[in-house]
Automatic annotation (TrEMBL):
Pfam families named among the record's database cross-references: NAD_binding_10 (PF13460)
Naturally occurring in which organism (per UniProt): Mucilaginibacter xinganensis
Residues annotated as domain NAD(P)-binding: 7-114
Highest taxon of source: Bacteria
The protein, known as: NAD-dependent dehydratase
InterPro entries in the record: Ergot_Alk_Oxidoreductase (IPR051604), NAD(P)-bd_dom (IPR016040), NAD(P)-bd_dom_sf (IPR036291)
TM annotation in the entry: none
């Protein structure tokens, strides 16, 4: 099959591309960076260098494909994060229609059943709705849990403050996933026939914030590492200090409130998948390697 992968060679798209090429598919990887062209070609895939904000580029790239894997890139400096996500979703919809694409596997998020109160995930909800309006297109929305790798963003906090924390308590439940488990599921869905508009949740493990802290602390030789709950205001200020825009900081803090209230997991709990194979303890070893670099 001819398959288009967005997301360059990121934590999901990279392993996914590797699997698809090994299985004999004709894969084109979309990347905004010309520097990635050689790396993409080393995988045995073709590179399409351009921006997901360029509808003409997307249309040209998508044309002739059997399946498109769509995802929205992160945008740490956006002045309106949700609007950015909606805009990329709209760009995909226009390009998919113009290119005559019939099958789309779309990377969304756990919590995308809600239209508000979840920070950037509400933008994913809107992107799902935009894609769902396409006539005659089969769409599989993947809704992964919170990425293990997000904790790599807290290495500075641990090193400089001696804590791990967020705007929810230590006993707050967190549903988690390894990006490679997402890649495995995306490979399954892209290569198997599907019809209509359907949703699949992806999760690898479930922990509390306190359990996560203990596991990561032990892995880096700090078994007494504490989880500290921040106020929402402290959360916003801390993220801005780390270089995120005010809007992105407020959105990510709102996502934390959705963890605190547990609304993020409501629909997931109604459609719980079998947990994937890569457990949080396995990731802790990867985390320790990054921490000790």
């Amino acid at each position: 099959m001819k398959i288009i992968i967005t997301g360059s060679l990121g934590n999901i798209s990279g392993p996914l591309t590797e699997q698809l090429v090994k299985a004999g598919h004709d894969v084109t990887v979309v990347s905004s960076s010309a520097n990635k062209k050689a790396d993409i070609e080393k995988f045995g895939a073709s590179a399409a260098i351009g921006s997901v904000e360029d509808i003409e580029f997307l249309t040209k790239t998508f044309t002739g494909a059997d399946v498109v894997y769509s995802m929205v890139p992160q945008q740490a400096t956006s002045s309106d994060y949700k609007a950015f996500i909606r805009k990329i979703g709209q760009n995909y919809a226009v390009a998919l229609k113009a290119a005559g694409i019939k099958n789309v596997v779309n990377l969304s998020s756990i919590g995308a059943h809600l239209s508000s109160g979840t920070g950037p995930i509400a933008g994913m909800h809107d992107a799902e709705e935009i894609l769902n309006k396409l006539d005659g297109v089969n769409i599989k929305h993947l809704r992964p849990a919170s990425f293990y790798y997000n904790f790599n963003n807290n290495i500075g906090m641990i090193k400089h403050m001696g804590i791990l924390g967020g705007n929810y308590p230590a006993d707050a439940r967190i549903v988690l996933v390894h990006p490679k488990d997402i890649a495995d599921v995306a490979f399954e869905e892209i290569t198997a026939p599907f019809s209509g508009t359907t949703i699949r949740y992806i999760a690898s493990d479930e922990k509390t914030a306190g359990e996560v802290t203990a596991i990561l602390g032990t892995a880096i030789g700090k078994p007494e590492l504490p989880w500290i709950q921040f106020t929402d205001e402290q959360s916003v200020a801390g993220m801005q200090q780390a270089g995120l825009s005010e809007d992105v900081s407020k959105n990510l803090t709102e996502m934390g409130t959705a963890v605190r209230s547990a609304i993020l997991w409501e629909d997931y709990d109604k459609h719980q998948p079998v947990l994937s194979k890569r457990k949080f303890e396995d990731f802790a070893n990867e985390f320790a390697e990054n921490y000790n670099k």
